[in-house]
Amino acid sequence: MARPPLSPRSPSSPRSPRMGDLERVVMEHLWESMAQDEAEGGATVRDVHAKFAGEREIAYTTVMTVLDRLSRKDLVTRVRDGRAWRYRPSDTREALTAATMRNTLDEIDVTNRRLALLHFLDGASSAELADLKAALAEIEARGS
Amino acid sequence: MLAALLAVPVPWLMARQRVFRRSPRAALAVWQAVTVGALASGLGAAPAALAVVLRDERPMAHLGTLSVLGAGSGLLLARLIVSGHRVGRHLRVLRRRHRELVDIIARHADGRLRVLAHPAPTAYCVPGLSPRLVISDGTLSRLTHDEIAAVLAHERSHLRARHDLLMEFFTVVHEALPQRLRRTEVMAEVRLLIEALADGAAVKEVGRMSTARALLALSGSATPEAALGAATTASPRIEVLAAGPLPRVVSALMYGYAAALLAVPVAVAAWSVR
To answer: pTM for the full model?
Structure first.
C-alpha cells in the first residue's frame, strides 16, 4: 500500500529530511522563474502548488510552510501581488554561493564561528608555499 | 597547587615540543589528560580539603582556607557550565544554519557530499548528527583524482571520529578560564594535532604523496587570512608528513604519561579521603 504523500505528523518539523528537500526544489523553481522572466519572476504559493501538482503531491499548506521557512532564512523575499504574496529569490544561486564561500573563508580569529566548520586547510602565506614545495620534493625524493 | 601546575607551565612546555606532532593521537591523549587532570584538581580541591580538615582536632581553625578553596572550586564549576552551554549552543546553531544553506545552494553528490559551484578551491565538513562534506568546483578542477580522495578521506575522518567534539571540549575549557590563564597556543596546537590526525587517516587510504600534494595544491589558493599572515597549519602538517610517524615505543610512552597525569589527581583524592 502506498504511503499517503502528506503525512499528518508535523510537516514543519525542522528535522524532517523531506522539508529540506522541498525547500531545495522550491528554491530551484524560483530561481528558474527568475531566469525566464527577470521582471515578473517569482511565484505565489498557488503557483508553486500548481507547479508541483503533477509531479508530487504536496499540500497547499506545506507549500506555505516551505516558503515561510525560506523567507525566515532570508533566501526569499516577498512582495504584494494583488491579494497574495509573490515570493522571489533574494539573490541568485551564484551570489549566495559566493557569499557562503566568503563567509567560511574570511574568519580570521579562532572563534566559535570558525570552529563550527572544519576546513581542510586554513590557507598558507606565499613564504610558506616555498617551504611546502621543498618539503614535498623531499617526500617525493624518498619515494613512498 | 596541582591544578596551577597543570594549568600553566605544563601546557607551556608541551606546546613547544614539536616532535610530538608526529604522533598526534598520543599527543591529543596527553593534552586531554592534562586538561582533565587540571580540572579534576581544581574542582576537587575544596572537597578534598574538607575531607582532610574534618579529621582534624579543631576543624574550625581552617575555615578561612576552606572557604577560599570552596569559592575557587565553585567558581570553576560555574564557569565550566556557563561556557559549555554557550559554546555548545552557538556551535549547534551555526552548523545547522550552514547545513541547511548548503543543502539548498549546493549540488547534491552521493550521500552527504555537497558541491559548491564556485571557482575558488575549498573543502570542509559541517560536523554534527547530520554531517555534510563540502567541496567546491575549484577543488575538483584543481586537484587530481587521488588528491581529491585524500581531501575527502581527511574530512571523513573528522566526521567519523567526531573531532569536532574534541575541539569543542578544549574550547569550552579555554573559554571557561579567566583571560589571563587562557593559552591560545594550546588551542592552536590542539587544532594542528587534530588536522595531523585526519591527515594520517588520508595517508592510510591514499598514501603520503597524494595527501601532501593535496595540501600543497589547496594552499596555493591564498585566502585573505593567509595574506594577513595569520598562523596556518599547512607548513607544520607537511613537515609531519615528511617526517613520518614516531616509533611505537615513543607513542606508548606518551600514552603512559597521559595515564600518569590522570592518576595523580586520583591518587591525591584517595589520599585525602583515606
So the answer is: 0.83
